[in-house]
Amino acid sequence: MQQNWLFGGVYGTVLSSALLAALHSEGTPYTPYYNAAWILVTAGTAALAHAYAHHMSSHRQNGGSQRWRRLAVTLADEWPAIIACMPTVLLLVVSGLAGWAESDVTTAGLLLNTALLFGWGTFAALREGYRRRSAAFIGGADAAIGLLIAGANAVIK
């Protein structure tokens, strides 16, 4: 179960970073609530697609009820990715309420998610037995990779 949390946490954090960077309006009106909803819908759709792909790739010959039960379990395992998008979603909602500038929100969101990726990477390394200094280095490298993925997504937008 801990592996699903970690995988989902990293996936959701990177996904929300990439979407936040890609949704930056560049001259059109800033729509923080729409962006928050878009990130949630995209995360939900990605989780469903991921669960469905796992389900389809693991067909076994047994009763239909077993098959539906396995699908339900696979879908339930995807919720950490959606939860990991919530810091970005909440930031966007608060920014809409407070009237913050889009560029400040995008920067803050990317910094927040970079810090979260650092935390996920450090946690994973510590869990595997790395010492704190090495774990922090690994966490930093993981954060940089996540930021590069988000940046690449924004560039190809």
Overview of this protein structure:
This protein is mostly helical and 157 residues long. The chain has seven helices and no strands. The chain has helices at 2-22, 32-56, 64-76, 79-84, 86-98, 102-127, 132-156. Helix 5 (86-98) packs antiparallel against helix 6 (102-127). The longest helix has 26 residues, at 102-127. The protein is globular and about 55 Å long. The relative contact order is 0.18.
Mean pLDDT: 87
Strand content: under 5%
**Cα Rg:** 17 Å
Can you count the helices?
7
Task: Count every beta strand, where a strand is a DSSP E run of 2 or more residues.
Answer: 0
Strand count, sense and barrel status of the largest sheet are:
none
Tell me, briefly, the overall form.
globular
> From N to C, what is the helix and strand string?
HHHHHHH
For this entry, give a set of tags.
single chain, 157 residues, mainly alpha, 0% strand
Task: Give a quick summary of the entry.
By secondary structure, the chain is mostly helical. 82% of the residues lie in helices and 0% in strands.
Sequence-ordered SSE layout with sheet pairings:
Layout: H1 2-22, H2 32-56, H3 64-76, H4 79-84, H5 86-98, H6 102-127, H7 132-156
Helix pairs in contact: 1-2, 1-6, 1-7, 2-3, 2-5, 5-6, 6-7
